[in-house]
Every structure is written in C-alpha cells, then in structure tokens.
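Backbone-to-sequence.
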C-alpha cells in the first residue's frame, strides 16, 4: 500500500470502523516457522507413524521455544528479539491510532484474532504495559470465558474526576493457546503461566506416551481434519462465531497479515461476511509472489470490499515490520480525522 489515496482512505475508514486484525504464523517470523509445510505434510500423512513425526516437528519448531520465553532464556536470540521488536512496534502504532481516534461513539478497542498458539503477543503487551483481554479472569486461578472479552477500561483522574477510556486489545486465539489447559475436573479451560502441563522432552517421546502428553495442550491441530478434544471443540466453535459476529457489525474493518487463508473454516466465514455486509472493508497484506493466488482464493471480483495489497518486489516478504512501517505509521501520518462518526 503505497498510494497516498489508499492511505487516506484507510485513515478515514479507521476513524469510523470497528477494527479487527487477523494474524497468522507469518506474523511471528523469524522466531517461529511458517506452518505451511507442516500442515501440508500432516494432511498427506497416511498412517499414525507419519502423523506423529510431523507433530513432533510442530512441537519442536513451534511449541517448545515458548518454554524459553517463559524462562527468559532468549535475551541473546537474534530471531526472537527481532520478532518481539516487530510486535512491539506494531502494538505501539495501534495504541497511537486508538488514542488519536477522537470518536466518542466507538470504544477504543481493537480485536486481534490469531491462529497462532505462541505466547509472544501476551509477553509483548505486558512488557509495554498495554491493557488487553485474553478471555481469562482471576488472579491465582484464571478461568477462560468468552464473556470476559469486550470489557472496557476507564480511568478517573485523581484530582478533577475526569474519566477517559483506556485503549484495550482483545486477544482472541481462535486455535487455542499453549497457555490453555484443562482444569482437574474437566470442562473448563484454565491458564498456565509456566507451561508446565507439557515437558521439555515431549518431542522425544513416542506412541502412547507422546499422544497422552500432547493432548494436554489445548490447541487446534494444524491439519485439515482438525482433531479436537471435546472441551476445545466447544470453544473453537464459539471463537469462530465471535469472529463472524465482529465481521457482521456495521462499518467493520478487517486487516489480514501473515495468514494464507488456507484454513477453509476461516476463509468461508470471511467470504460470507464480505458478501452479506456491504459496510465491511477487508484489507489483505501479502507478498507479491502470493498475490495472484490470494486474489483467486478471496474472489475479489465478486467481493469489491476486499482489497489485496502486496509488497512491491517479487522476493520481498510481507512482514509485521513492513505492515507497521508502510501502512500503520503512514496512516498515523495522514492525521486520522478528529470528527465524530455521523
């Protein structure tokens, strides 16, 4: 997105929109790998041995590195620091957008829908001291409930009793999270601060030992069949419904980055919303290499409210930094209108 006209248009849309982001595995690179190959290999697996092999790659490549984040053992890891820095710039830019948005009708909230199961976003938001809802409530034993989303936070000044709304990010992890685990009685999802419900040696276990421990992690598996535990199945359906509901709101805005739209469930919901809600605007950011495929997948000829924006050169990847520097910061530079929504 390099045209001044496009930036001005997005700036105006942001002023009056219910803002949503959809982030995929591409947002957490280079620290964590893109899941494309793992998904393809899992879908091609013809027996349990092949499937277990791919799951172990998933565990080693995507899950276990998060143990190092919890243990604060990545201070010298260049890839982690780059990814963390990218998220920090991203959320700082979004926070400034919310603060500058002067409308009194819309709340100062942004929904971050993500299929990522890692804990980088939560870590960054806490380090930046930004307010966020992740669906959990409680201090000693946080419990997940969809009702915990969409809470607004206001601050009253000490001396003059002025009340102002604080920007809040709703972090909606559609495919679950490494921090999710079953409570002892079952039926509820509780928060695991230490990720102690799976061990560092999970990637070396085999057969029943591997399957038993792997099932303790409440995440949607990266394969087409998406084998789900019963408790997660309920939340997965509800989170998809929440995603659909947000896109059906008047003047909804969806910005997609690092997501290939290969997930059939999410793609169908997005296309259905684009067709049924003429006020919905969707901007999908991807590399020039994948642009043509994205145009076909999202049927842009049938959906004029979907725009595909690609990098300028063939080999350039659309990273979180690219989105922040070339879109979000320039939108801020366009001076988001101060007028209230009419």
């Amino acid at each position: 997105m390099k045209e001044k006209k496009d930036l001005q248009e997005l700036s105006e849309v942001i002023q009056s929109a219910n803002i949503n982001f959809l982030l995929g595995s591409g947002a957490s690179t280079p620290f964590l790998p893109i899941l494309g190959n793992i998904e393809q290999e899992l879908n091609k697996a013809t027996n349990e041995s092949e499937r277990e092999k791919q799951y172990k790659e998933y565990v080693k490549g995507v899950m276990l590195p998060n143990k190092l984040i919890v243990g604060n053992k990545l201070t010298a890891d260049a890839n982690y620091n780059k990814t963390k820095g990218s998220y920090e710039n991203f959320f700082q830019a979004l926070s400034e957008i919310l603060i500058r948005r002067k409308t009194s009708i819309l709340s100062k909230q942004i929904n971050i829908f993500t299929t990522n199961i890692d804990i980088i976003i939560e870590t960054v938001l806490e380090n930046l001291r930004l307010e966020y809802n992740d669906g959990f409530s409680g201090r000693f034993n946080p419990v997940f409930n969809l009702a915990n989303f969409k809470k607004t936070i206001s601050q009253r000044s000490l001396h003059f009793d002025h009340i102002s709304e604080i920007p809040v990010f709703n972090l909606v992890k559609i495919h679950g999270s490494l921090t999710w685990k079953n409570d002892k009685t079952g039926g509820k999802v509780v928060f695991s601060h230490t990720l102690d419900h799976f061990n560092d040696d999970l990637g070396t276990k085999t057969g029943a030992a591997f399957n038993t421990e792997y099932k303790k992690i409440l995440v949607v598996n990266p394969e087409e069949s998406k084998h789900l535990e019963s408790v997660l199945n309920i939340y997965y359906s509800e989170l998809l419904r929440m995603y659909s509901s947000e896109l059906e709101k008047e003047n909804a805005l969806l910005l997609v980055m690092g997501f290939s739209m290969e997930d059939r469930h999410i793609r169908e919901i997005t296309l259905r919303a684009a067709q049924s809600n003429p006020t919905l605007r969707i901007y999908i950011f991807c590399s020039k290499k994948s642009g043509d495929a994205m145009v076909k997948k999202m049927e842009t000829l049938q959906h004029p409210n979907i725009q595909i924006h690609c990098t300028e050169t063939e080999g350039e990847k659309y990273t979180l930094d690219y989105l922040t520097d070339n879109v979000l910061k320039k939108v801020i530079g366009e001076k988001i209108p101060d007028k209230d929504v009419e």
